[in-house]
Design a protein that fits this description.
Length: about 270
């Protein structure tokens, strides 16, 4: 016969788990609603026009082309799929979901906050918000890296969706920081803009390479990061500010990220078969 103390403890644990699941689901809906506002589809100002237009595709040399932002539809769909999947009873007390759950909710809320900050024309505040978002996603990635998904569904909706989210936010953070520097009148200490943009893209490539080898060649973050950097190349060859040097640097960065991911994946799979 169970004691009253144990019964209360079990009830409290169930309540906390259910609360976590519901908050993640609500947070995913909140992020999607904020995205609609940020798109300007019904109301609100499109992100590229908000905050003085400094986040537009032609604002800086490392701003991805407009087409790059289509990836948000995939990311939001993936995160909503994760939110629905994790709210199922089977995941309520899953140790992996318990470890990442509150971090996922925080990432979705921060995403909505970032859009709200930009809508309020507070460009300077957008950088710390997206920096915290990047930290949160990195934390989730570390947890996922050290734990294994139990099936293919979890691999897709958890590791896949969050990986895409992380990869895109890396390049978005780079573009956000560069936009703020440009808005404040930073002139690069006399160094040519194309050189600065190449350095920034080299840093993004280094992060992608490090992520590939540390993460065992995970495809999702490499795919979204490469997507974002590739659209930097597209924008610099086809839009203003025109900069073939930056475009070439972006292409080289994509090639390095993809190559590192393939090599890391092959190494990881070979070790797993031993």
């Amino acid at each position: 016969m169970s004691s009253p103390t144990k019964t209360r403890s079990d009830h409290s644990t169930r309540t906390q788990a259910l609360t976590r699941q519901v908050i993640i689901l609500v947070s995913s809906v909140l992020a999607i609603v904020a995205a609609f506002i940020g798109s300007g589809a019904f109301f609100g100002t499109p992100i590229q026009e908000a905050a003085g237009g400094f986040l537009d595709s032609d604002s800086t040399l490392v701003a991805p082309g407009t087409g790059a932002f289509r990836i948000w539809s995939v990311i939001y769909t993936g995160m909503l799929a994760y939110a629905i999947w994790q709210v199922l009873p089977a995941q309520r007390h899953d140790a992996r979901q318990e470890r990442i759950g509150w971090w996922v909710a925080a990432s979705l809320i921060l995403n909505a906050v970032w859009i709200g900050v930009v809508q309020a024309d507070l460009l300077w505040l957008s950088l710390p918000v997206i920096a915290v978002l990047l930290f949160v996603l990195c934390r989730i990635f570390v947890i996922l890296r050290h734990t294994a998904p139990k099936n293919i569904v979890e691999t897709i909706v958890a590791d896949g969706a969050i990986g895409l989210y992380l990869g895109w936010v890396i390049i978005a953070t780079v573009a956000n920081a560069t936009a703020i520097l440009y808005a404040t009148g930073f002139e690069g200490f006399g160094i040519a803009p194309a050189v600065w943009s190449s350095i920034v893209l080299a840093a993004a490539a280094a992060i992608g390479i490090a992520l590939a080898f540390w993460g065992g060649g995970r495809l999702a973050p490499a795919a979204s990061l490469s997507w974002g950097v590739a659209w930097v190349a597209v924008a610099r060859f086809t839009d203003e500010p025109y900069s073939p040097e930056t475009g070439i640097a972006a292409i080289v960065a994509v090639v390095l990220i993809v190559a590192a991911t393939v090599i890391a994946r092959v190494r990881h799979d070979m070790r797993a078969r031993r």
